[in-house]
Amino acid sequence: MDLSLLFRRKRQAPPALTGELRERIRASFDEASADEENFPSTIDPRIYHVKLIHQHLAPLAGKRVLDVGCGKGRFARVLRELEPEAEFWGLDLSEEMLRYVPAGIHTRAGSMTELPFEDGFFDAAYATESLEHAVEIERAVAEICRVVKPGGRIAIIDKNAEHWGRLKTPEWERWFRPAELERLLRQHCRQAASRPVSYWEDVAPDGLFVAWLAVK
Ligand SMILES: C[S@@+](CC[C@H](N)C(=O)[O-])C[C@H]1O[C@@H](n2cnc3c(N)ncnc32)[C@H](O)[C@@H]1O
């Protein structure tokens, strides 16, 4: 074996969310928006993901909250019922997904890699199964943290790279090792931790989903 090849191998450049790829991702989710079975517009409010996000971000009365990559706004819909005095915003790449977001939740079309909000505009932000589609992950994490006020809270629920291969995924999707995303969050936040979560509180997590909880 020619060992020199090992030493000559360059570090791979991180993937880029080019205009063409962004359009492809957007078109794919525009189309998926009609699929209510796999992309539902509601979620059972008893699901632990909802409870955990709420526990981490609360109290939210009078606070402004961003759902990053909100899809049809299923999480914002139920969180708003729990926190009627909070102001909810949903940001998504797909305008077709945003059409399903309930009235009363502000919506913005755009990419989480360049959020159309001022620094510290939100008191809190969360992202559920959306960061995995952002391609430029470091940039998206930096943006989510930028738009949250110092002291504000951030929750991310996504899939664990240690379970990669368990589900069919589009070629741009990425899952995260718990420590990897904690490290990215710590670049902008004073606290960041992670833990495995399951949909139901009384069911032990199987490791697929991880919640990352941070305080800026
Ligand atoms: C699997 S869905 C999850 C939607 C929602 N968070 C939920 O849990 O129902 C992923 C969402 O991320 C959105 N998305 C993908 N890339 C994005 C980007 N760069 N910026 C913002 N949203 C994006 C998609 O359009 C899609 O609505």
Q: How can the largest sheet be summarized?
A: 7 strands, mixed
* Beta-strand percentage range: 15-25%
The total beta strand count reads: 7
The CATH architecture name reads: 3-Layer(aba) Sandwich
CATH level-four homologous superfamily name: Vaccinia Virus protein VP39
* First-residue to last-residue Cα separation: 49 Å
Residues in helices, as a percent range: 25-40%
Low-confidence stretches: 1-9
Sheet with the most strands: spatial strand order = 3-2-1-4-5-7-6
Predict the CATH topology. Rossmann fold
The distinct ligands, each listed once, are: S-adenosylmethionine
3D architecture notes:
- With 216 residues, this protein is α/β, with parallel strands linked by helices.
- It has one domain (15-215): Vaccinia Virus protein VP39 (Rossmann fold), CATH 3.40.50.150.
- Helix content is 28%, strand content 22%.
- It contains seven helices and seven strands; from the N terminus they run H-H-H-E-H-E-H-E-E-H-E-H-E-E.
- It has helices at 4-8, 19-32, 48-57, 74-82, 95-98, 137-146, 178-186, and strands at residues 64-68, 87-92, 106-109, 122-128, 148-159, 191-197, 209-215.
- Strands 3-2-1-4-5-7-6 form a seven-stranded mixed beta sheet, sandwiched between helices.
- Strand 2, helix 5 and strand 3 form a beta-alpha-beta unit.
- It is globular and about 45 Å long.
- 40% of the residues are buried.
- Residues 1-9 have low confidence and may be disordered.
- S-adenosylmethionine binds at residues 25, 29, 69-71, 74-75, 91-94, 97, 111-113, 128-130, 133-134.
